[in-house]
Amino acid sequence: MPETPSISREELAHLATLARIDLSDAELDHLAPQLSVILESVASISDVADDDIPPTSHALPLTNVFRADVVVPGLTAEEALSGAPEQEGQRFKVPRILGDEQ
Amino acid sequence: MSELLSYDEALERFDPALGLEVHVELNTASKMFCGCPTEFGAEPNTQTCPTCLGLPGSMPVVNEIAVESAIRIGLALNCEIAEWCRFARKNYFYPDMPKNFQTSQYDEPIAFNGWTDVVVEGPEGPQTVRVDIERAHMEEDTGKSLHVGGATGRIHGADYSLVDYNRAGIPLIEIVTRPILGTREIVPLVAKAYVAQLRDLLLGLGVSDVRMEQGSLRCDVNLSLAPRDDGSESDNTGRHSLGTRTETKNVNSLRSVERAVRYEVQRHAAVLTSGRPILQETRHWHEDTGITTSGREKSDAEDYRYFPEPDLVPVAPDKEWVERLRASLPEPPHERRARLQAEWGFSDLDMRDTVGAGALGLVEATIAAGATPQAARKWWLGELARRANETETDISALGVTPAHVARVQALVDEGAINDKLARQVFDGLVAGEGTPDEIVAARGLAIVSDEGALSAAVDNAIAANPDVADKIRDGKVAAAGALIGAVMKEMKGQADAARVRELVLEKLT
């Protein structure tokens, strides 16, 4: 049996910070055990997957699926911006950003 | 401004360790995972599609040429090529990636364990330094943010940001060195030489435009200091204990790479000497003031919650493919340098100056465009290197191309202009006034070949300088220089000095 995964209150608070989600103390208390249950449920897959089943990130055993380096027409600027709540100068307008570029 | 220790004192007390992360935009026609075009400078948000905007239901597909370019870069850096590797999602919340993750590679880079040798001028002559390459991996570039409001245009103090996603999804290769140890006082030169060599190598491969001023090659400088080893034993083993490092982002010219390394050595040394700790953080390089300032605290890799990208299948280059790509590689940099030096007949010193000025590829292209090696060297290392230094610009970013230089020299050879006028043509090229021929025409620089005008100018010079004229009549031909000078002055330099001399002597002897 693999170790039972669980998520601590501190880990959840850190995750929330990374995800820019503001959680109250009460929400952290409420959500941490729930997330642990979800992780445990998913982990039960490990019970049926034996050594003969390698971990995979894709459902099909494919490799090297490529496209040719050819330009395909995309969206106009108007189309691209059509879903933006706000725009300015043909750019997406977003709130003041805390943090930093990658 | 941070406190600095003098560079010499910093090195007396500490050993620097350098690491470089270089991001290279590939010059593919289309993006990494979709068919959008990649041209630089297009109107904002005119090169996007549902995939690179991260719209629901869109699916990425890998650009085959980008993979080939990644493998060729890996091979040129003597890397091993992964037999099987995957893309991973690097999760973060910042609007420069509309998907809220960047598709990158994490623990399975396509190329790893490589090296490249760079030559720098050390205290005791030229020195070869081996730079070990940890990895080269594939990823995608991010969008460009414009921060509006606030005093500096930077993030801090901005009221809001405007994002252009044209660049989001352009294929990017990140090349990461292992820590470069034991280079001591030449560490800034090693950093510059490595980036210059990488630039030349990528140009030779034809996989990128490598225009640092346009951001198609960007450099992050990692630096740390460790207390200097007093025992000489561990000096050559590379087993130094490393100090806390800082990562200085977006150092985007060769000259800045050298300056940023030097600055961080001095800054780290001052902090450590005063007994304070170095914070592990990213820092911003300021080109104008030549300093770095604190950015954010560096995230741990686990904060990015990397996981294999489920929308893409693994890349598994077979041996035959890799060998075919290996066969397409140009010659390695050191062999190329040796061959070019022999072909051009350059002295060791000429060659060192050329490489040091970052002008090897420029000189080569100028010769290919028809100039002699001597002419190419004269203009790039004399006139243009001087201008680059004076204006603190990279020599490749002056606005003068190899084709320009070859044409200027051709105009000199044809007798249309002389060297002095050629310098004015370079003034015009730097100012963006057009091609050499256009500048000669627009500025009226062509040498006056009108014999009547020349003859009149010579007569004027003789009349104005009767003493000199008498000397020449008495056989003192050396005095002709004064009259030639007067004629050239009257002609505003636009005369062929040799023809003026002939005319002076014809009239007086």
Automatic annotation (TrEMBL), chain A:
Keyword terms of this UniProt record: ATP-binding, Ligase, Nucleotide-binding, Protein biosynthesis
Keyword Cytoplasm on entry: no
Enzyme Commission numbers on file: 6.3.5.-
Gene Ontology biological-process annotations: glutaminyl-tRNAGln biosynthesis via transamidation; regulation of translational fidelity; translation
A single MF term (Gene Ontology): ATP binding
Pfam family, one: GatC
Region (Disordered) location: 81-102
Subunit and partners: Heterotrimer of A, B and C subunits.
Function: Allows the formation of correctly charged Asn-tRNA(Asn) or Gln-tRNA(Gln) through the transamidation of misacylated Asp-tRNA(Asn) or Glu-tRNA(Gln) in organisms which lack either or both of asparaginyl-tRNA or glutaminyl-tRNA synthetases. The reaction takes place in the presence of glutamine and ATP through an activated phospho-Asp-tRNA(Asn) or phospho-Glu-tRNA(Gln).
Family listed: Belongs to the GatC family.
Name of the protein: Aspartyl/glutamyl-tRNA(Asn/Gln) amidotransferase subunit C
Automatic annotation (TrEMBL), chain B:
Compositionally skewed regions (Polar residues) per UniProt: 243-253
Region (Disordered): 225-253
Name listed for the protein in its UniProt record: Aspartyl/glutamyl-tRNA(Asn/Gln) amidotransferase subunit B
InterPro entries reported for this sequence: Asn/Gln-tRNA_amidoTrfase_suB/E, Asn/Gln-tRNA_Trfase_suB/E_cat, Asn/Gln_amidotransferase, Asn/Gln_tRNA_amidoTrase-B-like, GatB, GatB_Yqey_C_2, Gln-tRNA_amidoTrfase_suB_CS, Gln_synth/guanido_kin_cat_dom
UniProt GO BP: glutaminyl-tRNAGln biosynthesis via transamidation; translation
UniProt record similarity statement: Belongs to the GatB/GatE family. GatB subfamily.
The keyword NADP appears for this protein: no
Pfam families found in the cross-reference section: GatB_N, GatB_Yqey
Subunit architecture: Heterotrimer of A, B and C subunits.
Gene: gatB
Catalytic activity as recorded in UniProt: L-aspartyl-tRNA(Asn) + L-glutamine + ATP + H2O = L-asparaginyl-tRNA(Asn) + L-glutamate + ADP + phosphate + 2 H(+); L-glutamyl-tRNA(Gln) + L-glutamine + ATP + H2O = L-glutaminyl-tRNA(Gln) + L-glutamate + ADP + phosphate + H(+)
